[in-house]
Specification:
The protein is 26% helix and 21% strand. It is α/β, with parallel strands linked by helices. It folds into two domains: 5-155 and 345-357, 3-Layer(aba) Sandwich (Rossmann fold), CATH 3.40.50; 159-337, Dihydrodipicolinate Reductase, domain 2, CATH 3.30.360. The protein is globular. It starts with a strand and ends in a 7-residue tail after the last helix. The mean pLDDT is 97. It comes from Bifidobacterium pullorum subsp. gallinarum.
């Protein structure tokens, strides 16, 4: 690529916005040219606007330190200087929906980390390794918005990343009843131990909205584009998921324990084979942030572990272990995924890479 696409980060000062800034530093396809946030941050340098709230383990990239933050509500001005934007704003959902549509209507594609548009029928919610064909719904969204290149695409919730890839790998065996408990890191709430010390040595058995997302979003990922209706129709087969979501004293990494029944009974060897040999369009296209091997299967009894496995494939891969037969269900297993990389900014970045590779995002 001779010229990089110009990228804006909307909501740049928050934790996910910071992660976008670090991941995009020296990206081979994209270059951050615009940072935007609330009116309170507008007019300050990025370093001044973030202040002491930098939450990443790596230093703030030099390329963005002195960049002047703009008001995210100044949509026309921000959109004029970018080819597309990442959205990581922290606002009420109805306000997010309205703001993202305003950007899209300026003919600026929006790749969103937010949940506000995940159930908008003509907005694709994609894990690039699982359901990239859902991007085909974009043409119907453009017709609704009255745009030629502007649209919104979103990624799913971070809590489903540790187990939905396994269900995707096993689709031929017809997953049916699934009972899942997720043990979710504090960075999923935008926190570190420095600003949430009460989480040390503690668990909280409730995360608002997470259980509904964990149960419903995989069904949308496994759905299909209904051409007659111009929208995504969630999977309506026998798969049913019930979940509990627990906040645990871990910085990064969501772990899931899963019990599963199948319509067609597989062997353990068949299940492992489908995991380790899972291939995807994202890998075939050679996207910069696509893991070379999406899923790894670990044979040790005490794996996956956050400390050992959360950074698998640069935090973009999924680790599965402890697969074994169960006395009440067919099988049970443990999954692990990095919630702010695979599950948040990294997943959105890989989505943008796929949208670029498929021709949905280009220079204005």
């Amino acid at each position: 690529m001779s010229e990089k696409l110009k990228v804006g980060i909307i909501g740049a000062t928050g934790m996910v916005g910071q992660r976008f800034a670090t991941l995009l530093d020296n990206h081979p396809w994209f270059e951050v040219t615009t940072l935007a946030a609330s009116a309170h941050s507008a007019g300050k340098t990025y370093e001044q606007a973030v202040g002491g709230r930098w939450k990443m383990e790596t230093p703030m990239p030099a390329a963005v330190k002195d960049m002047i933050v703009r008001d995210a509500e100044d949509v026309e001005s921000v959109a004029a200087d970018v080819d597309f934007v990442f959205s990581a704003v922290n606002m009420p959902k109805d306000e997010i929906r309205a703001l993202e549509e305003r950007y899209a209507k300026t003919e600026t594609p929006v790749v969103s980390n937010n949940s506000a548009h995940r159930w908008t029928p003509d907005v694709p919610m994609v894990v690039p390794e699982i359901n990239p064909e859902h991007y085909e719904v974009i043409k119907y969204q453009k017709a609704r918005l009255g745009t030629t290149r502007g649209f919104i695409a979103v990624k799913p919730n971070c809590s489903i990343q540790a187990y939905t890839p396994a269900l995707a790998a096993w689709r031929e065996f017809e997953p049916r009843e699934v009972v899942v408990s997720t043990y979710q890191a504090i960075s999923g709430a935008g926190k570190t131990f420095a600003d949430w010390p009460e989480m040390e040595g503690n668990i909280i058995p409730f995360i608002s909205g997470e259980e509904e997302k964990s149960e419903r979003e995989p069904l949308r990922v496994f759905g299909h584009v209904d051409e007659s209706r111009g929208q995504i129709v969630p999977f309506d087969g026998p798969l049913r998921i019930t979940s509990q979501c627990i906040r645990v004293p871990v910085l990064n990494g969501h772990t899931a324990t899963v019990f599963i029944n199948f319509g067609k009974k597989p062997s353990k060897d068949e299940l492992i084979d489908r995991l380790v040999n899972y291939t995807s369009e994202a890998s075939r296209l050679g996207l910069p942030h696509a893991p070379k091997q999406f899923i790894q299967y670990l044979t040790e009894d005490d794996r996956p572990q956050v400390r050992l496995d959360v950074d698998y494939e640069g935090g973009m891969g999924v680790s599965i272990g402890r697969l074994r037969e169960d006395t009440l269900f067919d099988f049970k297993f443990v999954g692990l995924a990095h919630n702010t990389l695979r599950g948040a900014a990294g997943g959105a970045l890989e989505s943008a890479e796929m949208l670029k590779a498929l021709g949905y995002i280009s220079a204005k």
